[in-house]
Amino acid sequence: MLNLSNLSVKYGSFTAIEDVNVEVGEGEFVVLLGSNGAGKSTIFKAISGLEKPSGGKIIFEGNSIGGLSPERLVKSGIVHCAEGRELFPRMTVHENLIMGAYVHRKKKKEIKQSIKDVYELFPILHEKREDAAGSLSGGQQQMLAIGRALMAKPKLMLLDEPSIGLAPLIVEQMFDVIQQINKDGTTILLAEQNANAALKIANRGYVFENGSIVVQGTSEELFTNDEVRKAYIGA
Ligand code: ATP
């Protein structure tokens, strides 16, 4: 479904990622691991059109998409759930969800159904539907960000560190729902520092250091890899 080949991205003269090769098959759940600044967010920005690649190719469903606008990419089925959530804090939960369907100009009936699906996945959002997004807890805001991304009916969902700043129990609940979204048919590419939680649900993963891939494999291979355990699992 998604193929990054020899992808490089620069910020001015600084090379943030270099010669990166990543493959994500349809229906897969793939995780990008790595510490702060390793380049995970930059890869997401390149895939979703927020940064232009300086080299290499991004192929999505057989088409080269490197450098296309974020709006076109959302229309083609790629949605980016960025780190920091980027909600509209003064708008209600419900209004934030409606904004997620904006690019597709869907009919009212379809939007209603999508919102119903999101509320089924996250009952707490239904409870809080008239509350301002900014008044929600960190975990609820993250759920809203994911819910809003689902409103665009993505084929591929890019999730950038959804567990950041959340309590372990909330992380567990969040990852259960992400796994459910994957089972329902959405392909997932997840960036995480929480390797322990991510490798429990992902099929495969890539480990990044300083903008390059240093290890890749199935989740089980990564979970039992000594270097990965030392650096990211703490055992
Ligand atoms: P984090 O979890 O902190 O977001 P990351 O693995 O996602 O880490 P990136 O945000 O992709 O890493 O950053 C990769 C490198 O690019 C870092 O060295 C970072 O300082 C640098 N960088 C990121 N954005 C910019 C920017 N807009 N201008 C210049 N350098 C940047």
TrEMBL record:
ABC transporter domain: residues covered: 2-235
Pfam families assigned: ABC_tran
Database matches in InterPro entries: AAA+_ATPase (IPR003593), ABC_transporter-like_ATP-bd (IPR003439), ABC_transporter-like_CS (IPR017871), BCAA_Transport_ATP-bd_LivF (IPR052156), P-loop_NTPase (IPR027417)
Protein name in the entry: ABC transporter ATP-binding protein
Gene3D superfamilies (alphabetical): P-loop containing nucleotide triphosphate hydrolases (3.40.50.300)
Record-stated family: Belongs to the ABC transporter superfamily.
Keywords: Amino-acid transport, ATP-binding, Nucleotide-binding, Transport
GO molecular function, one term: ATP binding
SUPFAM superfamilies: P-loop containing nucleoside triphosphate hydrolases
